[in-house]
Amino acid sequence: MTVLKTSLRNFLAHKGRMALSAVAVLLSVGFVTGTLVFTDTMNTTFDKLFQATSSNVTVSAKGSSDTGETTSRTGKPPVMPASVLGEIRRAPGVRSAEGTVFSTSVTVVDGHNDKLSPTSGAPTIVGNWNHNDARTMKITSGTAPKDAGQVMLDADTAKKHHLGLGDDIGVITALGTHHARVSGIATFTVTNPGAAIFYLETKTAQQTLVGRTGVYTNVNVTAAKGVTDARLKKDVSAALGGGYKVQTAKEVADANQKDVESFLNVMKYAMLGFAGIAFLVGIFLIINTFSMLVAQRTREIGLMRAIGSSRRQVNRSVLVEALLLGVIGSALGVGAGVGIAVGLMKLMGSMGMHLSTDDLTVAWTTPALGLLLGVVVTVLAAYLPARRAGKVSPMAALRDAGAPADARAGIVRAVIGLVLTGAGTASLYVAGTADKATGGSAWLGLGVVLTLIGFVVIGPLLASGLIRVLGAVILRVFGPVGRMAERNALRNPRRTGATGAALMIGLALVACLSVVGSSMVASATDQLDKTVGTDFIIQEDHGQVINPQAVKAVKATPGLARVTEYRSTVADYTTPDGRTLKDTDITAADPTYARDLRKKTVAGNLEDAYRPDSMSVHEKFAKAHGIHLGSKITVAFKDGSTAHLTVRAVTSSDEVIDQGAMYTSIATLAKYVPADKMPLDQLVFATAKDGQQAAAYKALKQALHAYPQYTVRDQTDYKKALKDQIGQLLNMIYGLLALAIIVAILGVVNTLALSVVERTREIGLMRAIGLSRRQLRRMIRLESVVIAVFGALLGLGLGMGWGATAQKLLALEGLKVLDIPWPTIITVFVASAFVGLFAALVPAFRAGRMNVLNAIATD
Prior knowledge:
This protein is an alpha+beta fold. A hairpin with a 2-residue loop joins strand 9 (168-173) and strand 10. The longest helix has 48 residues, at 249-296. This is ABC transporter. Residues 59-79 are annotated as: Disordered.
C-alpha cells in the first residue's frame, strides 16, 4: 500500500511529463485499435452484403470465378444457354430459378461522355434487373427498365453525378456502345460497397453484354421449404450433369469474403506495422522520461533506502508509475482508436464506399489487445530505469549525486553496439553482392534489423562524436550560448542518443523508401528510353481490354506510320524436357512489336518469333527446360486447340519492361483460337510519321474521345504516370510514418522539459550572472535543433545505406539505376532542424519564465 501511495504521489507530481509519454502510448494504441476496428467493421459490412445478395444456390457458367467476377480477356462474360434454366427448375427441391446476365468489363458514361465509374476502385456492374437484386435494392424513383431504350441505376451513383430520370446513359462494351435513358433509380437497403450499378431489360442486357440473346451468366436458385442449401446443390448438380459451377450461398459469400479479406489484410498488416514502429519510438520516449525522473529523484530515493526501503520496493515503485501510465494511455488509446476507425469510414465514404456506423464492430479482443500492448510496452520500457533506481545507495541522500554511473556498463554497451553494427553492415554487404534477389532479401532484412539495433545501442558513443562536429559547424556561430547548448547536449550522451534514435527510426525508413522509389522510377525511365521505339501507348488504366471499335479508331487516325496490337492469353506448355506447365501466359502481338520494343535477345532475332507457328522464350525459362533455337514447345491454348510452336528467339531475362514475356504473333494465335474466344488487346502502340508526333498525339486523343476509359500517353506522359503512381504510394507510407515522427517529437519535447527541470538551479545561476531570457531560450532551442539534426543524420545515413542495398537486389530484376533523391533528403534534413525548433518552443518558454531567486534556491 505504501509503494502504491508513493507511486501515485510521484505520478501526480510529474503529471505534465507523464502526459507527453501518455500521448505516445495513446497514439500507438489508438492506431492499433483503430486498424482492428476498421477492418472488423469492413468485414462485417461485406459479410452482411454477401449474405443478403446470395441466393440459396448459384449456378454459374464454366470459366467464371468463385466470386462471380465476369471480367475476361475477350471483354465478354462467360455464359451458358438459357435452356439450363428449364433443367434447373425441374430439379428436386427447387422452388424457383431466375436467369441473370451481368458484366464488369464495361464502361458507362453520361450524356457529356464523362465516366460514371467509382473513383474508389470498386467495380462498375451492368446487368439485368432481377428478384435477387430486389432483395437489397428498392426502386425509389421511376420504374425498372422495360425496353431497350431504358436503364436504371443506383441512387449513390445518380447523386454523385447529378443524374435524374430521362438523362442519357451510354454503356460501352467490347461489342459497341448502347445508349438508353434513365427510367428509374434504386436505393440500397444494405450498405453500398461503392460499386456503380446499372440495370437493363434482360434481352437488352444479353445483346449489349454478350452479343446474343438466350444466354445467362448466372442462375439464382431458391430452395423449396425444408430443403437445405447443401441438398439443393447436390440435386441441381445432378440435374445439370457437370460443366457448370454450382455453389451454395455460403460458398459464394465465403469466396467473396476471402477476396475482400485479401485486400483488407494487406492494409491491416501494413497499418499495424507502422503502429509497431510508433510503439518502438515510444519506448525511447518512456525510457528517457523515467530515466530522467529517476535521476531527478536520486536524493529522495536515497532517503527512502536510508529509512528502510528495499531495492525491490524502489524498483516496484517506479514500475507501478509505469503501470499507471500504461493503463491511462492505453485506455485513452482504445477510445481514440474507435474514433480513428470512424474517421477512416468517413474517408472511405468520401471515396464512394459507404460504410454505416451501425455496422461498427468492436470485438472484445480489440480493446483487450490494445490495453495489453500499451501496458506491457510501457512497463518493459520503464524496467531499465526502475532497475537503475533500485541501485541508488542510501549514501546518495547525503550528497548531490545522480543515479550511479557505471563506466563498465558503458564500455560493454559500446562494444555490443559496434559488434551489432558490424554484423549488420556485413549482412548488407552480402545482400548487395548476392546473385539472386530471393536469397539477398533475407540478408537485407537481417542487415536492416542489426544495423538499426546497433545504432540504437551505440547511440551514446555516436552522440559524443557527432554532437561535437555539429557544434563546430552549427552552434559555434552563436558564441557562448551555442557552446553552452553543445555542452548540454553532451552532458548525458545516453539521453541524447536515445532521443536522437527515436527520430532516427522514422527518418531511416523515409530515406530508404525514397531511395528505392526514386531508383525504381529512374530504372524504368532508363529502360523506356533504351527499349521503347514507339511514340504512343494506349491502355485502360484498370486493366480492362480495349474494344475493337477503339482499335479501329486508332488505326484510322491520320499521321500514324504504324499501329501495333498487343494481347495475351493462357496456355499449358509442354517443354522438350517433358514437363507440363499449367496456366502459363503467352503474349501475342503484331510483328511490328519487335520495333516498338527493342528487346535484347541472347539467341536469334525477335522478328522471327512472329513468323507462323513460331514463338520466343526468355533466357531463364530456356535454361530451366533445356530449350534452344529450333526447339518445339507444345502449347495447348485454354480457349482453343493445341499448337506445336518452334522457338525462334531467346530474350534476355534482365529487362524490366515485359520481363519474362514469351511472344508469338496474333496471326498464330488466331490460327488456334476461335474468333469468338480470341482475347482483345490489352495495349495498342502507335508510331507517328516523321515530324508529325504533335499532330498525331492530338488526333489520337480526338479519335478516342468517345472512349474515355482509354488513355493516350506519349513517353513523357508514361514516365510521369509511373512517377506519380510510385509517388502516391510513397506519400501514403510517409503519412503513416508521420505517426512515428510525431511520437519522436514528443520525445524531444519531454527530454528538453525534464532537462530544464533538472537544471533549474543551474539556469537560475546563469540568469543571475547576466544570461538574458532571450539567450536562455536560444540555448534550449539550439540544444533541441542539434539533437534533432543528430537523429536526422543517423536516420538519413542509415536509410540511404538500406536503400542502396535494396537497389542492388532490384538490379537483379532489371532495375539497375541507383538514384539518390537529394532534394527529398535535403528537405527532410532541413525539416528536422525545424522539428527541433518546434519541439523546443514550450520548454524554452517555460525556462524563460523561471523566477531567478526561486531557481537558485532550488535544492
